[in-house]
Structures are given as structure tokens and as C-alpha cells.
């Protein structure tokens, strides 16, 4: 399994669960999913990273694009429950200072 995505509404936010590996080959799938989610479901987006085991710079660029799209639409993006390797990349790049990271989806939905 490379990447699996699942989208669901939670309150007035949309949650996209990202499972597997986010890299050069799979990033376009998440990019399309994020664009569709914001366009169809609104600009309050939570990316559930609970089951994301790997992310490279391609994945980071999708997160930045998601943030730009959502904030330009008056909404926002936050991340929920990244595993240690993914959390380390977010900290190292400083992206966790731009996109808020929460310990779980319910907290993220409540804060966005």
C-alpha cells in the first residue's frame, strides 16, 4: 500500500485521513483530494496523519499548498496526530509553526 485517502465531514470541518507514504509519486493524489475537499466541502480542513508513515519534501509542498488554498478561502488547515517521523520533519522544516499540529482529530476539529 502506497497511499490511501478518506474524506469525511466532522461538524463544519472536512477531515482527510492520509494513510501510507506521501512522496513524489503519491503527493499528486493528496493534492487533488485537498483541492476537491476545499472546493466541495469548505475551507476548514483537518489532515489526519495518524496512519501516515512517511513524508518527503513533495508531501510538505502539498501541505503548504493546502494551507494557502484554505486560508485564501477564509478557512484554515491543521494537522492531527502525526507519527514521530512525520512530526520530526514538520519540526525540522518549521512547518509546524505555520500549520498547527494537534494530538488528535477531535481536538483539531474543535480548534480550526
UniProtKB/TrEMBL annotation:
Annotated ranges, domain STAS: 3-112
Pfam families with a match to the protein in the record: STAS (PF01740)
Listed SUPFAM superfamilies: SpoIIaa-like (SSF52091)
Membership in a protein family: Belongs to the anti-sigma-factor antagonist family.
PANTHER family referenced in this protein's UniProt entry, alphabetically: ANTI-SIGMA FACTOR ANTAGONIST TM_1081-RELATED (PTHR33495:SF2), ANTI-SIGMA FACTOR ANTAGONIST TM_1081-RELATED-RELATED (PTHR33495)
Database matches in NCBIfam families: ant_ant_sig
Name the record gives this protein: Anti-sigma factor antagonist
Organism: Streptosporangium amethystogenes subsp. fukuiense
Amino acid at each position: 500500500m502506497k497511499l490511501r485517502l478518506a474524506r469525511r465531514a466532522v461538524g463544519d470541518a472536512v477531515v482527510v485521513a492520509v494513510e501510507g507514504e506521501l512522496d513524489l509519486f503519491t503527493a499528486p493524489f493528496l493534492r487533488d483530494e485537498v483541492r476537491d475537499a476545499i472546493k466541495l466541502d469548505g475551507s476548514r480542513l483537518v489532515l489526519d496523519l495518524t496512519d501516515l508513515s512517511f513524508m518527503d519534501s513533495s508531501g510538505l509542498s502539498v501541505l503548504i499548498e493546502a494551507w494557502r488554498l484554505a486560508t485564501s478561502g477564509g478557512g484554515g488547515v491543521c494537522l492531527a496526530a502525526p507519527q514521530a517521523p512525520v512530526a520530526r520533519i514538520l519540526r525540522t522544516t518549521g512547518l509546524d509553526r505555520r500549520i498547527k499540529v494537534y494530538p488528535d482529530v477531535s481536538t483539531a476539529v474543535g480548534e480550526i
